[in-house]
Write a structure and sequence with these properties.
single chain, mainly alpha, Arc Repressor Mutant, subunit A, 3 domains, two-stranded antiparallel sheet, 13 helices, 5 strands, 55% helix, elongated
């Protein structure tokens, strides 16, 4: 068997991940599902099998997975109850359908190829009119797929703190609009760098917002603003009295004009009225 399948990281949060036999069964289903529509023979019977489906039986599963049949049936029903697969059984076989197969396993580029193939004639020549018609039909679906993928990306978790993670996702969105787009490994390195710079979540958010505001490609430590510190110091100094200012007022002479002792003795009241101005 050739090819590969995609496995989303959020499988780590699924309860089946901690159940080895249940997880083995689900991975087996993913790997055996058809990647395109076709037909399959089960015994002498020909059955239509769509992409994301495969035909099996409990005996086959038991042999391939080395699990007993009764336990396999319970695990299949468990995956069905979790809406991860669908089951259609009869007395001969079971058709297993992977839920949301196309959403998780197909690419937009693959979807475009399939759309183009639908409009091709038997001689592989498609008229311009038919291409335009196909585009009108498929463009809404392509847009829908793109929106669904964007929603999935927004659920990515880089930090345990929701506020920090939300800020970082905005940074990720900004970087993904640039060319060339950074890889997932590059974002993981940025996460490590931010954790190295600080453990304070508030400072992390400030660092991220600074990079977004300046359209920077990286995350850098914040620099203290000297002008802001100077302003704070100036405001603080206005509340502190100048050195010896109070003492200077205390020793200020009450009478600033020269006076004669005889004047004070002759007319004390007139003296004070004259010099008290």
């Amino acid at each position: 068997m050739d090819g590969w399948v995609k496995l989303h990281r959020k499988i780590l949060e699924n309860p089946i991940f901690k159940n080895a036999e249940l997880f083995q069964l689900f991975i087996y289903c993913l790997l055996n599902a058809n990647h395109k529509d076709g037909k399959a023979f089960y015994g002498s019977q020909e059955i239509d099998v769509k992409k994301g489906q495969f035909i099996t039986g409990r005996f086959t599963l038991s042999k391939d997975l080395n699990q007993n049949e009764s336990g396999l049936y319970k695990r299949l029903k468990r995956l069905e109850s979790l809406t991860m697969i669908g089951l259609k059984s009869n007395n001969k076989n079971t058709i297993v359908t992977i839920t949301n197969w196309e959403f998780y396993q197909s690419d937009l580029c693959d979807f475009n190829k399939e759309v183009t193939a639908l409009g091709q004639q038997s001689n592989n020549k498609v008229t311009t009119k038919e291409q335009q018609s196909n585009n009108k039909v498929t463009q809404p679906r392509m847009k829908e797929c793109k929106n669904e993928r964007m929603k999935e990306e927004n659920k990515m978790v880089f930090f345990e703190n929701e506020l920090v993670n939300g800020a970082f996702l905005k940074f990720v969105d900004m970087r993904k609009k640039e060319k060339p787009q950074p890889t997932e490994h590059a974002f993981n390195l940025l996460v490590d760098e931010l954790n190295r710079l600080t453990d304070d979540n508030d400072i992390k958010i400030k660092i991220i917002n600074k990079s977004i505001m300046c359209s920077w490609k990286g995350l850098f430590a914040l620099k203290e603003s000297n002008s802001w510190q100077a302003k704070e110091q100036k405001e603080a100094s206005e509340w502190i009295p100048k050195e010896n200012s109070l003492a200077a007022e205390e020793v200020k002479p009450i009478v600033s004009k020269p006076f004669k002792k005889d004047e004070l003795n002759k007319d004390p009241e007139g003296f004070w009225r004259k010099y008290d101005k």
